[in-house]
Amino acid sequence: DGGITQSPKYLFRKEGQNVTLSCEQNLNHDAMYWYRQDPGQGLRLIYYSQIVNDFQKGDIAEGYSVSREKKESFPLTVTSAQKNPTAFYLCASSMGRDGETQYFGPGTRLLVL
Amino acid sequence: GQQLNQSPQSMFIQEGEDVSMNCTSSSIFNTWLWYKQDPGEGPVLLIALYKAGELTSNGRLTAQFGITRKDSFLNISASIPSDVGIYFCAGQLGAGGTSYGKLTFGQGTILTVHP
Q: HSE-up of A1 (CA within 13 Å, CB side)?
């Protein structure tokens, strides 16, 4: 089946630790996105990538880093510099052409111990 | 950045009732999208609108792209228990440049349906 997978479903982080969230898609989409969701708020864009080996900061990029070495993969690292990392993280992808709809993965919930 | 105001924040309705929610923006969008999110899951696309004035249906769901391109609404007719969830609107400029593909989301409407 084609789709977007995120792993793990739940992730626990200790203070001062970096953690990496996985996002993989087999939809042959060019563009991929990372969003953060907090209770009672809409989704906020962290980073996005329109093409392999290229990515741009979104609205809340501080404390996060990404890479796009392969078309199907867009991992997100939550660094120790992110002071409030507890949230629900959502990955999305789209064909990348102007106005193409974004489709979302199932999400990863990150909790800080 | 741009802000979308989505209302109402929450709704408690009886099964069989119709539901209406809307989003307004201070600036225009070229695309409006409506998503539904179940608890602990990613949002699922319900309806996409690409043209000002467009009215689109998907089963019991109907959505419209406002003429001014600054608003959109979603109606659900004859609600059923499985309609429960959070509904998000999202606007997309889609005009390239630094805003390429970027979605701006509303805060969401939490829908509860009582049997």
A: 3
Between A58, A90, A99, which is nearest B31 by CB? A99
State which amino acid sits at residue A69.
Answer: E
Per-residue model confidence as pLDDT tens digits over A57-111: 999 999 999 999 999 999 999 999 888 999 999 999 998 665 578 899 999 999 9
Q: Which residue out of A101, A108, A111 would a mutagenesis test of the B interface target, given it has the greatest number of B Cβ atoms within 10 Å?
A: A101
Closest CA to B88 of B40, B39, B21: B21
Kindly identify which residue of chain A lies nearest to residue B93, measuring between CA atoms: A99
Query: What residues in B contact A110, CB-CB < 8 Å?
Result: none
Radius of gyration of chain B (CA): 14
How many residues appear in chain A? 113
